[in-house]
Here is the input.
Amino acid sequence: MPRDYYDVLGVAQGADEREIKSAFRRLARQYHPDVSQEADAEEKFKEINEAYEVLSDDDKRARYDRFGHAGVNGGAGGYGAGFSDFGDIFDIFNSAFGGSASGRRRGPTAGRDRRVDVTIDFVEAVFGVEKEIEFQRLESCDSCDGTGAAAGSRPSTCGTCNGSGEVRQVQQTFLGSMMRAQTCPNCGGKGQVISNPCRNCDGSGRRRKRAVLNVKIPAGVSEGIQIQVRGDGDAGEHGAPPGNLFVVVHVKEHAYFKRQENDIILDIGVNVAQATLGDRITVDSVDGPVELDIPPGTQTGKVFRLRGRGIPRLRSDGSNSGRGDQMVYVQVETPIDLTEQQRKLFEELAQTLGRENAPRTGGRGLWSKMADFLSGDE
Here is the structure.
């Protein structure tokens, strides 16, 4: 399986363009086959080039961050390898005749999405909770207000493309004259150049900062669910729209509650006397203690349903539509360590029950006989 491209270059997922380029140059010099003496230098050099090709391209990087390797190898959209890079028929012609991969002005790059993982306990998942999360993101530079230009200066219109972000030229082909559009090499498709960059952000208009947010987690969430918080990802480049924040929820296992879709499962044990004679017991629920009637003759595997005490049904819009149930499974526990008095009582009981092991064909069963004995009706 291919290695993670960020690991290949040795950079964090939130690395900016300058960090990625610097890491690539350093590794390329180290593993160039003409320089390196390592046996696998050529393979490493190819891997480094592949990683840089994806992470240095905003569109490919966005697809990779969302879909992994499948997003840049034709898997994300269901197309064959190669055609996932073409947006439409004009892109195919531009690529075929030496134009840019997109043929469109790139402009300022929108902010990237961010991911934060948060862990909550079982009961918090049932009823919902508000959590404070902390993470790193790119925010607009305070010194230059996101322009990238030093105080007292402003970006200027690119003289090469006159602010269009692309340069065009006519090329003669077998189909006749074709207009080829390329991203402007002077401004990188932004349409503006910064002659006096801001020192605090090196002209990028953004700086990495610590962010603290309160996020509401709705009732009924399950393990791995993602909550989207719009506009709280990285700030966009030079005024472009910000990315979004995705909060991935993880739910701790409970000591004795289990989840089955929207129902809560609880296993309880009752002793032989309770199962035989019946009893009124108290069981736990996420809403607090609940009284439960155990009828006489209860067998192992008996299930009691506590309606409406399960997990809220979570809709796609974050609202709820009722709750599931709590299912209480009974296990009749056979005593192991008996006192002398308990052993004597069981021996007396055994005398009344007999030693019949044949399959049941009707008549009074074990629990009926035990109930008569324990109640004194022999």
Observations:
- Residues 17-31 form the longest helix (15 residues).
- Confidence is low (pLDDT under 50) at residues 75-105.
- The first strand starts at residue 114 and ends at 120.
- The CA atoms of residues 83 and 290 lie 61 Å apart.
